[in-house]
Design a protein that fits this description.
The protein has 400 residues and is an alpha/beta fold. The chain folds into 2 domains: 3-56 and 306-397, Aspartate Aminotransferase, domain 1 (Alpha-Beta Complex); 58-304, Type I PLP-dependent aspartate aminotransferase-like (Major domain) (Aspartate Aminotransferase, domain 2, 3-Layer(aba) Sandwich). It has helices spanning 3-13, 46-49, 58-70, 82-94, 105-124, 145-149, 154-157, 175-181, 207-218, 270-273, 289-304, 307-323, 352-360, 383-397, and strands at 25-29, 32-35, 40-43, 98-102, 132-136, 167-170, 186-191, 221-225, 249-252, 264-268, 330-336, 339-344, 363-364, 366-368, 372-375. A 7-stranded mixed β-sheet has the order 4-10-9-8-7-5-6, with helices on both faces. The two termini are 34 Å apart. The model has no long low-confidence stretch (mean pLDDT 97). The chain binds pyridoxal-5'-phosphate. Pyridoxal-5'-phosphate binds next to helix 5.
């Protein structure tokens, strides 16, 4: 069957909550995907960084198949053999004493919010139900009602109220805005160290450091949403580490399972994570043995294949080469590691049309926020493949 057939089925029977490029992918391998006509494409989105290890990584596949043959779900009513090993390996890799596994990123964000609120009442002593969490404008933390309650994107939220109270919005990257939002009831500040969905927005150097010291001075938790920026994407294990910042809580997801299966987690030390008592939080699938086995393999691939170092080195190369393209459409090329945004001028006619052309030429990238093309290939990409892609990207950016 041809692409057209599947596209029509999807349009007819599926909710239209996405606007995908019209490529129907049948198979993926490493940095490449193949459509139903057999055309080959370089994946420069990596499922929003869930595929840092590349498509269908053989080691993660083996772990998944082997575990699927043994036991997949126990529920947390019973213990399983994989979860403790996952906890230990995650702690050793990240330096956080404890973690709490969930499934989607949004669930982990919700978990962090619950934990921050409990900390506010039990540890900080904020009066019940008066705690406030500060977030930044332009944020993306997921799609649940609570999370969209503090989105500043009108079309993420406009039709979906009433909203969850208890959040305050400040200007991303602006310390005065943050300081003026503080009250004795501030429990936490939650930020993305780089705003991925927001358009690969990097805050001014020193911002994360200053946020950390504001938090320490005022007894406030610093929560970093590293679901997209974490696990090597930006050339460090966590993007916060570019400023030597160690948040009180880190939220991870996406590449935590190498794209095989939804696994997310909240990381924190015992002092904070220890506040959860039995029955206060949970998830039927969270921490299941299949997810834990997959995540353990996904983490070990990041380490064994030195994906963090690769992201740093190849990301710098890719970014510098992109900067050399002198297209009148380009306003700025920015990024860290292999999370790169090419921002087009408003008069370029939007990033979408460039992504459509890139697709025709064998590169899959997706616009974010009208005018930004995000290049975030799997971290296993090689210099040769980047060198293959660069002239194609150049030609595309040079079109009228
Ligand atoms: C993708 C993403 C989320 C939401 O993750 P889901 O798995 O889609 O729920 C949250 N925060 C950031 C920064 C993300 O990139």
């Amino acid at each position: 069957m041809e692409s057209k057939y599947y596209i029509e089925l999807e349009e007819q029977y599926g909710a239209h909550n996405y606007h995908p490029l019209d490529v129907v992918i049948e198979r993926g391998e490493g940095v490449w995907v193949y459509d139903v006509e057999g055309n080959k494409y370089l994946d420069c989105l990596s499922a929003y960084s869930a595929l840092n290890q590349g498509h269908v990584h053989p080691k993660i596949l083996d772990a998944m198949v082997e575990q699927a043959k043994k036991v997949t779900l126990t529920s947390r009513a019973f213990r399983n053999q994989q979860l403790p090993l996952f906890y230990k390996e995650l702690s050793e890799m990240t330096g956080y004493e404890m973690s709490l596994p969930m499934n989607s990123g949004a669930e982990a964000v919700e978990t962090a919010i619950k934990l921050a609120r409990k900390w506010a009442y039990k540890t900080k002593g904020i009066p019940y139900y008066e705690s406030e969490i500060i977030v930044a404008d332009g944020n993306f933390h997921g799609r649940t009602i609570t999370i969209i309650s503090f989105s500043t994107e009108e079309y993420y939220k406009k039709e979906f109220g009433p909203f969850t109270p208890g959040f305050k919005t400040v200007i991303y990257g602006n310390l005065e805005s943050l300081e003026s939002a503080l009250t004795p009831n501030t429990a936490a500040i939650m930020l993305e160290p780089i705003q991925g969905e927001g358009g690969v927005i990097i805050p001014p150097l020193g911002y994360l450091q200053s946020v950390q010291s504001i938090c320490q001075k005022n007894n406030i938790l610093f929560i970093a949403d590293e679901i997209q920026t974490g696990l090597g994407r930006t050339g460090k294990l966590f993007a916060s580490q570019h400023e030597n910042v160690r948040p009180d809580m880190v939220i991870i997801g996406k590449a935590l399972s190498g794209g095989f299966y939804p696994v997310s987690a909240v990381l924190a030390d015992r002092e904070i994570m220890g506040l959860f008592q039995p029955g206060e939080h949970g998830s039927t699938f969270g921490g299941n043995p299949l997810g834990a086995a997959v995540a353990r393999a996904a983490l070990s691939v990041i380490q064994e294949e030195k994906l963090i170092e690769r992201a740093e080195e190849l990301g710098n190369y890719f970014k510098e080469e992109l900067k050399k393209i002198s297209s009148t459409h380009v306003k700025e090329v920015r990024g860290r590691g292999l999370l790169i945004g090419v921002e087009l001028k408003p008069e370029a006619g939007g990033a979408r049309r460039f992504c459509e052309v890139l697709k025709e030429k064998g590169i899959l990238a997706k616009e974010t926020h009208d005018n930004v093309i995000r290049f975030a290939p799997p971290l296993i990409i090689s210099k040769d493949i980047i060198d293959w892609a660069l002239p194609i990207i150049k030609d595309t950016l040079l079109m009228d």
